[in-house]
Amino acid sequence: MSRLGDLIRTERVRAKLTPKQLAKKCGVAESYLVAVEKGTKIIADDQARRILKAIGLREQTEADFSLDDIAATVDLATVGSPVAKTVATRPAPKTEPEAELVASTGGKTPSGHKDVTEEKNVGGSIWLDALTSVLKHVPVMNAIMKPIDHRLLPIVAGKIEGANPDKVFYYLVPDDSMRGFRVHQGDLALIVPAHSPIDGVIMLVEYNNHRFLRKVKKLADFTVILQSFDKEYDAETAQINECTFIGRAAKLEVTL
To answer: How far are the Cα atoms of 69, 93, 208 from residue 136, in angstroms, in the given order?
Structure first.
């Protein structure tokens, strides 16, 4: 279910309307409205506002699904496929029996043609583009692994950076021990699960009861070098079986 479809369903239930009743109020097929609520049908934001207004909402409601968040996190050039525009004239108002017949036949008119309201897709909307993907609230963890914030990231092909979306998180860098590698205190490192050392990669590691970001250098004898760089370069040799590798730093978000 999409965030927008969930919102429409929530407000419809709150207004004590059935899908059939709301579809009739909005002049759309019941099957179309049900598909929108399930998130299987893309809907333009102007039509969504029209449906919400028909439910009884007077103000624009986006339920924590802000356009700014979407614009900041979704690459509209790569997410999803373009939605074709269908140009159609507005049909004459249906009589009540005809409208019910259209709803009961999956959006088809008595002549067998699809209801033009269901077929019409409007491109160019930020919601229309963003809803071709799913957004995930990725938690921001502090040094003791407590969530303190979140960031919205798109899920592509069911994954974020090739990993289970529920397993990735941002790590708030607590100090400048990695600034020689251009990682500074206050930066956010996106951590993707990886439980074995990866040579030449900055990883989140637990060692000697401490958790930190370190650049990993694998050696041939089941040891690794954990590299840091504050005011000067430093390196610590450790046995792999004495380290817990939490994940690799896939991206870095810097606040200017």
So the answer is: 11, 41, 33
